[in-house]
TrEMBL record:
It is found in: Mitochondrion inner membrane. This is Phosphatidate cytidylyltransferase, mitochondrial. Signal peptide: none annotated. It is a peripheral membrane protein. Pathway: Phospholipid metabolism; CDP-diacylglycerol biosynthesis; CDP-diacylglycerol from sn-glycerol 3-phosphate: step 3/3; Lipid metabolism.
Length: 337
């Protein structure tokens, strides 16, 4: 069975990529313009905005070149030059978005992030913003031979699996796991209350199970803490305190810090390992992991959304927000049974 990527060919994406400076360590397309989502009409993906992320080694030089090639993509911030644009990029999730950009007959949105900031997010979940997007199926368009970046991409997927294990029961289905993984980067995101379809996670996972399997199958098969019954689509994990402690100790650094902050009383200086051992024995272990993830996402999503007013400009911000609200309203009318 063919995987349900929309008919936009690699050539179409390459044509978009050709419009930009080529010094990219990673470029990928994601979202409903690339992968079909539940409840969308057959031609919806062909008219939907295409979303891209470009990781670059030298942010200032990349923006300087892009300003000379695509000055109209930028808001009023173009008048402040590439250095100031790069400074603003550093706030929030460390990514700078140009949105509602006409390109080859389609509307696109593209975000620029430094390679170093991306690697840090993938390894440590500093913001779980771009790392969260890369926990779901994406279409990789370009990737250089950066071994640290490759290791970080794999580490991010393994971390998503472990964090999800801690929030799931002893036995569950593949779809349960993929729903948990896809929902990680939306936990605590205020836009899920207003601005996003409440069934977004379900809509992402349901038509794309095969893509999630392709992304996570080797990690699940190589994980010693899970019995992966691939043919039946079932999984069983070790929910003993010892098993949970092993998983907690392997979580990204920022998430460990958030979890310890939740359970360690102010002024009491205890070792992280000691605190996580306590959490492993706590019946609310999964809830504490969820709260830790929510704290990371909440902080980055608020600052990133506020930054959009500057990076997109007032007019585009209003148009983009109205489009999101429209999608949210449509989602309410198409509640899954």
């Amino acid at each position: 069975m063919a995987l349900p990527v929309l008919s936009s060919s690699a050539v179409k994406f390459r044509r978009v990529l050709a419009q930009f400076p080529q010094e990219l360590s990673l470029a990928f397309a994601y979202g409903s313009g690339v992968f079909r989502q539940a409840g969308a009409s057959a031609d919806h993906g062909e008219t939907n905005m295409l979303d891209f992320v470009f990781a670059v080694d030298d942010v200032v030089t990349w923006h300087m070149t892009n300003l000379s090639k695509n000055r109209s993509h930028y808001s009023f911030l173009k008048f402040f030059g590439p250095k100031n644009i790069s400074t603003i990029q550093g706030y929030g999730a460390g990514i700078y978005y140009n949105t509602l950009v006409p390109c080859n007959g389609r509307m696109i949105k593209y975000g620029v992030i430094s390679t170093d900031a991306l690697i840090e997010d993938l390894f440590h979940w500093n913001t779980l913003y771009v790392a969260g997007r890369l926990q779901k199926p994406v279409k990789i368009l370009a990737q250089n031979e950066n071994s640290r970046l490759q290791a970080a991409l794999v580490s991010n997927l393994k971390s998503a699996v472990l964090a999800s294990f801690l929030m799931l029961p002893e036995s569950f289905s593949e779809e349960d796991l993929f729903l948990q993984i896809a929902g990680l980067s939306y936990s605590g995101d205020f836009r899920m209350i207003i601005g996003e379809d409440r069934f977004k996670v379900h809509n992402i996972v349901q038509p794309n199970i095969a893509h999630f399997q392709k992304l996570y199958s080797s990690i699940l098969q190589g994980c010693p803490q899970v019995v992966y019954k691939h043919q039946q689509g079932k999984l069983e994990i070790d929910k003993s305190p010892e098993g949970q402690f092993t998983q907690l100790m392997a979580l990204p650094k920022t998430l460990q810090q958030q979890i310890t902050a939740l359970v360690n009383p102010p002024g009491k200086n205890r070792d992280v390992e000691e605190i996580l051992l306590q959490v492993a024995h706590d019946p609310d272990c999964g809830y504490l992991v969820h709260q830790g993830i929510s704290a990371i996402v909440r902080s980055s999503s608020i600052v990133q959304s506020a930054k959009t007013i500057l990076t997109a400009g007032a007019k585009k911000s209003v148009i983009y927000s109205l489009k999101k609200l429209y999608k949210m309203a449509k989602g309410e009318l198409k509640k899954p049974s």
